Every structure is written in C-alpha cells, then in structure tokens.
Amino acid sequence: MRVTFIRFADHEWGYVVIARDDGVVYRMNTGPITGETPHDLVHYTVEDALRIPDGIWGSIAGGVVFRSMTHVCGRRPPHAAERSKELIREHRDLLQRAELIGGLCERAAELPEAELARFAAKEPFQPLTVEQLATATAALRAVAERWAGLAVGDRLELEWPRHRAVRPSAATPGRTGRPERSRSRQGRSSGRPTPSAT
User: Fold this and answer.
1) Is 20 helix (H, G, I), strand (E, B) or coil?
2) Looking at the domain assignment, is residue 197 inside a domain?
C-alpha cells in the first residue's frame, strides 16, 4: 500500500493519499498542517518501526475505512462496508492500543535517550519494552527531520508492506495486538481517524 503525505502550507487543511494494494485510492483528511510531524505520520512511523500489523495503518491496508477517508478512485470490493465494520468491531481494542502506543512514543521522542528507561517505568500501562521505545523514538526523530526539510508541495511517499494488514481474527488467533520483536531480540489530534461503517 502506498501512502503519500503532502507538505501543504502551514495552517492549510491537509490530507494523505492512500493507494491500497487492491487498486482502491482514498484521501484521508489530516487537519491543519504545521511544521510538526502530522499525527497520522507519527502513527505510520511508530507502527512501521515496531512492525505492528493490527494498528491504524494495518487496519487501513486490510480494508478498514475511517470517517476521515474519502473514496477517490478504484473499484471497491464487494461488501467493502461490511468488511470494514467487521474489522473495526474485531480490532477496536487494538486500534485504541495503537493510539496509546503512538502517543507514548511521540512524548518519548521529545526526551533525551538516557531518560527513556525512566519514562517507561513511570507509565502505568506501558505496553512497550525500553528497546521498542528506543526503536520507535529514533524513527520518529528521523521522520521529523525529513518532514521539516520538505518544501510546500513536496511529497513523502511510503510503502506499507502487504503482509502487515489486518485479517479477521479467526485467521490469526493469538497473534494480533503485539508489536513484532526487533531482529536484535529475535534474529532480526485533530486528524485522528474515527471508525466508520463506510
């Protein structure tokens, strides 16, 4: 799935272009643009860095359509609205968890690296290891630098892997909801999406 973040002028209402692997293209409203990393790009970066398959972007890749998304072109598969509804119902807790993880990592990225362990220990419901937090915050700092260097009209095109898309929970029992471990351990806002039935 190709995701294109566009650098609009500050305070203009922005959007992201999402071209799914099935050929369907959507535009997702992101709210007013500033020099800060857009909310949806924060989530994309964190979920990609942690290889989360069932967060916001894995859900979109799997067929979820949020209220902030508008169909642009491409033939939608049969029963697309019903599939979106079902996936949202099955993954609602995981979507909320992805929001939590994105917010935690965004706050952690503002801290010196030496303070990450203390930050993780202070969070009452910390879902990440210190290593995962470090991985995500490093990715966020890198994308923030890239975003800050874009001129108005520039595009940041990213590819979401096909294998990292949600499926009905029965197809992947016991695997959903956990970021994949990094290879080092295993061998290796305003534009917030709102669940929609459409």
Assistant:
1) coil
2) no
> Could you tell me which residues are beta bridge partners of residue 15?
29
Of 101, 108, 91, 102, which is closest to residue 126 (Cα–Cα)? 101
Rounded CA-CA distance 189/38 in Å is 9
Mean pLDDT per 10-residue segment, the chain (198 residues): 96 96 96 90 97 95 95 94 92 92 93 86 79 94 95 96 83 43 35 40
Ramachandran angles phi, psi of 18, nearest 5°: -120, 115
Our measurement of the distance from residue 100's CA atom to the centroid of its chain's CA atoms, rounded to an integer in Å, reads: 12
Distance of CA 71 to the CA centre of its chain: 19
> Range of 42's domain?
2-161
Reported as type and span, the H/E element at residue 26 is strand 25-32
Give the Cα separation of 106 and 122 in Å (integer). Answer: 15
Residue 79, token pair as written in the block: 């029963």
Provide the number of structural domains found in the chain: 1
Query: Which residue has tokens 């007013």?
Result: 32
Decide if 172 is inside a domain.
no
